[in-house]
Amino acid sequence: MQTLDFKHYELTNHLGNVLSVVTDNINISPDSAFAKIVAATDYYAFGSEMPGRTYSGGGEEGAGAYRYGFNGKEKDTENTWGDTSYDYGFRIYNPRYGKFLSVDPLTKSYPMLTPYQFASNRPIDGIDLDGLEYVRRVHIVAGNGAIIHTEDYVYYKMSENELAAHGGTPAGRYNAGGHGPRGEGVLHQFINASGELLKERWDLERNSAVASAQTHGLYSGGGSITQQGNGFDYDFSWQPIDIADAIAKAHDIEYSEAVKIGGPSQGYVEDVRTLQADIKMVERVNRALKGETAEKLGIETPWRTGKMSGETIAALQGQKTFIGMLALWKNWKSNQQNQGSNITIFNDGDTQKFINDVSGNKLQREAEKIYRKGVVAILREAERARTKQGE
Questions:
Q1: To the nearest 10°, the Cα dihedral for 36, 39, 44, 48?
Q2: Residue 140: its pLDDT value, please?
Q3: The model's pTM
Q4: Left (φ > 0), alpha (ψ -120 to 50) or beta: where does 271 sit?
Q5: Residues in CB range of 117: below 8 A, 6 or more apart
Q6: Rounded to whole angstroms, how far apart are CA atoms 244 and 252?
Q7: Distance CA 233, CA 186 (A)
Q8: Neighbouring residues of 320: CB distance < 8 A, sequence distance ≥ 6
Q9: Over the stretch 130-165, which tens digit does the pLDDT of each residue have?
Q10: What crossing angle do the helices spanning 310-334 and 362-389 adopt, rounded to 10°?
């Protein structure tokens, strides 16, 4: 037997304000049906509750007892200044003043705004993301430099209205997932206990046309989303954005497993232990381009399913090309003496042998040689980038 009134549902507006709270106790009459309302609140622009427009069902269910309100944040009524305030994670917001009670950690980036401002002083169509402005992983750093806490703020799972309120870009026919005003990629920010921004790092930053062509989502490209933005501690706990990202995540996991035995990683260009992972990825990409789902591919279901975006299709095509080049090089290298342990992409003698080691008729051989010259040039550039910024 189901017991009613134990489940509560929030009815919110475009700012996330909790306007009403209803239960699963539905009253049905011959000509209508309505849910039991246990709390209802209207708000002024900056979040103060309107007198006379707040309804409480009484008891533990009432508006006074319900913990969430403006922007969907948790209320705090037991504070030293006697007002209702809201906890935004890194700062406390007071709706009566329309300001935060401490300085914005990013105030240096916004000289045109007071460091205590809320939502750029646009409370009608804007909200503040936990006291900060962009999608990011925010690391709180102790005096000795150690990270003592990390908070994650993510755009790609936000609704279109939420993204619009933050000045972000929603998912659409081309964009695979929503992203914030500073673009796609993963931003790490390091803040001390006083709220001062110490430094920033990016994972898979897409700050140029070249970077956009080489990276996608949280896992596709020369790296992955990491725990601390240092390029090494890959974080496989995140749900991939789309099927291209899901394929890349599976590929990254298989890479990490492949290099656990036999010494340290030699990098994704040179390490022949990762050849099978490359071959699997190309196979999965080809199947995805034919319409197969993540479930059929045996990989994690991404956040975006259904019809692929233009960005997803472009990413799959890019993965097919680049990972196919890696597989071609590693397959040739693994068939050389000692599995090519002394062969590198920067050795002209090695690469010339790779270019010339082709079969088929004369026309086919010449076409393959031209292609392999391109492979060498691209893989050399990839290896330079990897060694420059760390794998």
A1: -170
A2: 78
A3: 0.65
A4: beta
A5: 99, 100, 104
A6: 12
A7: 14
A8: 282, 285, 286, 289
A9: 543 324 577 878 777 788 888 777 778 777 777 766
A10: 100
DSSP state of 84: -
Burial class for 63, CB neighbours closer than 10 Å (0-12, 13-18, 19+)? buried
Q: Which of 80, 119, 82 has the alpha carbon at shortest distance from 99?
A: 119
- Tens of pLDDT, residue by residue over 164-193, are 666 677 778 888 887 776 667 888 888 887
Tell me the CA end-to-end span of the chain in Å, nearest whole number. 56
Query: Pairing mode, if any, of strands 85-87 and 92-94?
Result: antiparallel
Residue 106 is inside which H or E element, if any? Answer: none
Number of continuous H segments (helices) and E segments (strands) in the chain: 8, 12
Query: Element (H or E) spanning 237, and its range?
Result: none
What span, in angstroms and rounded, lies between the C-alpha atoms of 366 and 386?
30
Determine the longest span between alpha carbons in the chain, in angstroms: 88
Q: How far is CA 382 from the centre of its chain?
A: 23
Both tokens assigned to 16: 């996330």
The model's pLDDT over 61-100, given as tens digits with 9 standing for 90+, comes to 444 467 788 887 888 877 655 678 887 766 788 898 888 8
Token digits of residue 324: 């196919």
